[in-house]
């Protein structure tokens, strides 16, 4: 972002009616190693910090929804072909990316110009990693690599979850390119790399605010960095009028209070402290794939996951279980087909302690009285969860069916 782009963004926000509390500041992070503050952002990135102490529950930013960039607020909404494309709601982030590129191509004519100018030129995104890239080599055999595999797999099925480059390219070739080329005939910047960049902006910054706008780019709200232990929260009234986006009203002709996106402190904040949001309960693997960064510690959500709906992972589990040496002889008290019986096999004391510590991995941390000490914080990517442990147990109980399809219903149940 150019040096004066922060000033231009703030001036644009003020003109749009965005209210920023005097106690907060949007700033560019200097060299993290020389700066005493513990920034979540990278050096050179933008961050929001407190100029003055802020009390718990104080609202620090109020953004009218008229300032958000969505498929409902972009001028592209007037295009009949775009309206037709919007019928496919499973492509909402691709539709929004098309609006972002459309507004960028409008240049000075876009009412979002100074907001668009605040977006970064370069975005870390797993979308651009090909299988021979350094990044893909590094993540081989990790949960991140599995997430990319899943995205590619789901892209080829009717299941809309997961994104991969092929799906973004298919949208551009089949829908987006023809719409924008008709609007901007012969424009040199109307290209696939520009659309991909717009999509990466959307996938790293956009979120759903309400039933009218759906997924959108929210100025200022998208400047807050992420951590698990966040001190701010983004809030919006979700159930608004589907026709006009106004707050609940009887008919669209009756004016109602403006709808806003509010950012509120959920912890008291010290002077100079960074204000940090949470993008959701995500593992480091998901953060790397979706946002291109990882935290320097285990996240709350961290766990080793398998998606047994994904054939290659099912085969992987079958392979592991085929070598599994766990044997359990059912007794009268413990019937293997019973869920409760499976649960009774868990070391219950340890499981309770772990649950209290929000620890769901099988390898038990060392417990000394009330104190739970986890000696393997760096190895969490390779530990199994209780869910997977039950799965292994169930499959081991039904060893003769391990490689077959019959136990699939048990896996689903687990
Ligand atoms: Zn209405």
TrEMBL record:
Lineage top rank: taxon: Eukaryota
Record-linked InterPro entries: SET_dom_sf, SETD3_SETD6_MTase
Q: Which residues cross the membrane?
A: none
Per the UniProt entry, what species is this protein from, by scientific name? Answer: Malassezia vespertilionis
Which sequence ranges form a coiled-coil region, renumbered to this chain?
none
Q: What is this protein called?
A: Uncharacterized protein
Task: State the Gene3D superfamilies in the record.
Answer: set domain protein methyltransferase, domain 1
A cellular component term from Gene Ontology for this protein is: nucleus
Report a single Gene Ontology molecular function. protein-lysine N-methyltransferase activity
């Amino acid at each position: 972002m150019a040096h004066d782009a922060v000033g231009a963004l703030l001036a644009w926000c003020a003109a749009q009616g965005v209210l920023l509390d005097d106690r907060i500041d949007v700033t560019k992070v200097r060299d993290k190693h020389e700066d005493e503050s513990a920034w979540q952002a990278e050096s050179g990135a933008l961050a929001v910090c407190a100029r003055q102490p802020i009390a718990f529950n104080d609202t620090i930013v109020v953004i009218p929804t008229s300032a958000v960039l969505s498929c409902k607020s972009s001028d592209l909404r007037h295009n009949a072909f775009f309206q037709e494309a919007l019928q496919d709601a499973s492509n909402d982030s691709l539709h929004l990316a098309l609006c972002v590129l459309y507004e960028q191509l409008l240049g000075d004519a876009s009412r979002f110009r100074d907001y668009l100018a605040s977006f970064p030129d370069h975005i870390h995104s797993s979308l651009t990693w090909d299988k021979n890239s350094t990044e893909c080599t590094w993540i081989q055999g990790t949960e991140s690599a599995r997430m990319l595999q899943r995205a590619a797999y789901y892209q080829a099925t009717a299941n809309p979850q997961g994104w991969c480059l092929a799906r973004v390219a298919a949208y551009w070739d089949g829908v987006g390119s023809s719409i924008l080329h008709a609007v901007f005939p012969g424009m040199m910047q109307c290209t696939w790399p520009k659309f991909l960049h717009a999509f990466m902006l959307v996938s790293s910054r956009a979120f759903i605010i309400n039933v009218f706008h759906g997924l959108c780019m929210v100025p200022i709200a998208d400047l807050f960095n992420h951590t698990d232990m966040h001190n701010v929260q983004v809030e919006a009234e979700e159930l608004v009028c589907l026709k006009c986006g106004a707050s609940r009203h009887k008919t669209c002709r009756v004016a109602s209070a403006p709808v806003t996106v509010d950012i509120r402190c959920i912890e008291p904040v010290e002077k100079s402290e960074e204000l940090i949001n949470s993008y959701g309960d995500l593992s480091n693997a998901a953060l790397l794939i979706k946002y291109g960064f990882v935290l320097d510690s285990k996240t709350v959500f961290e766990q080793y996951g398998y998606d047994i709906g994904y054939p290659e992972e099912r085969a992987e589990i079958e392979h592991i279980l085929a070598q599994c040496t766990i044997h359990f002889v059912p007794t009268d008290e413990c019937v293997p087909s019973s869920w409760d019986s499976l649960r009774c096999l868990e070391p219950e004391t340890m499981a309770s302690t772990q649950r209290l510590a929000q620890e769901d991995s099988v390898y038990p941390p060392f417990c000394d009285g009330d104190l739970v000490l986890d000696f393997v914080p760096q190895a969490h990517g390779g530990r199994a969860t209780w869910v997977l442990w039950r799965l292994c147990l169930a499959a081991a109980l039904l060893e003769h069916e391990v490689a077959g399809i019959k136990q699939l219903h048990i896996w689903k149940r687990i």
